[in-house]
């Protein structure tokens, strides 16, 4: 059997098992989705979002890319964010990175100029490295330097989320969502929270939007 055929077979077994355990499972899911969480994670195959938090289908809206980045000009990411916040009305956004992230490791190294796309994508992590270069370079081992940049990258992405007009508007209008920055350990399977940004978080004036005062009618 070819490797991809195993996936199709596994899918049949999964579907059959679900129907036996809960006969109405797929009918209910097919009707609508109302996830409480938007998950922004790394594409790394060892960090499967639903599995590591034991989430069921329908519980998390998910966006994954190399090194869990929220780039304010990335229409893919922004489309996911806007749909999750404004249509699905998620209550929480979780940015979850992981230690020993290959994307972060690559951003700390010199890349071949021929890797045009990868270099462009990693440029954003390099900008975070530039901001914290003294702190990171002072760490004694490469593993520690990578892992500290992993943490700082997650914190940075959480803050970038708070700087978007989509999140600021939702905070202003609806007092949600809460933004969480989490880091996952590949070696122990555990998640540690790094940062929480609630809707009353003070935004750096540089990134604040000007919301008109609402008048009573
Ligand atoms: Zn990664």
Description:
The chain has a five-stranded mixed beta sheet, covered by helices on one side. The chain is built from nine helices and five strands; from the N terminus they run ααβαβαβαααααββ. It is globular, with a radius of gyration of 20 Å. With 217 residues, it is α/β, with parallel strands linked by helices. It is 47% helix and 15% strand. Bound molecules: zinc ion.
What is shown here, in short?
The protein has 217 residues and is α/β, with parallel strands linked by helices. Helices cover 47% and strands 15% of the residues.
Q: How much strand?
A: 15-25%
Q: What's the story with the biggest beta sheet?
A: 5 strands, mixed
Number of helices: 9
Largest sheet, order of strands side by side?
2-1-3-4-5
Which structural class best describes the helix and strand composition? alpha/beta
**What is the typical, i.e. mean, pLDDT?**
95
Give every kind of bound small molecule, once each: zinc ion
Helix content: 40-55%
Poorly predicted runs of 5 or more residues: none
Number of strands: 5
What is the CA-CA span between the terminal residues? 68 Å
Write the layout of secondary structure elements.
Layout: H1 3-21, H2 25-31, E1 37-42, H3 49-52, E2 60-65, H4 75-87, E3 92-98, H5 102-108, H6 116-131, H7 133-137, H8 142-163, H9 165-174, E4 178-184, E5 191-197
Parallel strand pairs: 1-2, 1-3, 3-4
Antiparallel strand pairs: 4-5
Zinc ion is lined by residues 42, 44, 67, 98, 101-103.
């Amino acid at each position: 059997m070819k490797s991809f055929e195993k996936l199709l077979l596994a899918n049949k077994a999964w579907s059959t098992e679900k129907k036996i355990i809960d006969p109405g499972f797929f009918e209910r899911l097919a009707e609508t989705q109302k996830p409480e969480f938007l998950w922004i994670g790394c594409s790394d195959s060892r960090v499967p979002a639903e599995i590591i938090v034991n989430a069921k289908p329908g519980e998390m809206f998910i966006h994954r890319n190399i090194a869990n980045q929220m780039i304010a000009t990335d229409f893919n990411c922004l489309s996911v964010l806007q749909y999750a916040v404004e249509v699905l009305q998620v209550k929480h956004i979780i940015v979850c990175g992981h230690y020993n992230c290959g994307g972060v490791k690559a951003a700390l190294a010199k890349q071949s100029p021929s890797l045009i796309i990868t270099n462009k994508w990693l440029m954003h992590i390099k900008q975070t490295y530039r901001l914290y270069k003294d702190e990171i370079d002072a760490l004694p081992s490469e593993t520690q330097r990578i892992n500290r940049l992993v943490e700082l990258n997650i914190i940075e992405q959480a803050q970038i989320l708070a700087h978007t007009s989509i999140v600021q508007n939702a905070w202003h209008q609806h007092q949600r969502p809460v933004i969480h920055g989490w880091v996952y350990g590949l070696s122990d399977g555990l998640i540690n929270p790094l940062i929480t940004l609630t809707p009353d978080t003070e935004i750096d004036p540089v990134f604040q939007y000007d919301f008109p005062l609402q008048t009573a009618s």
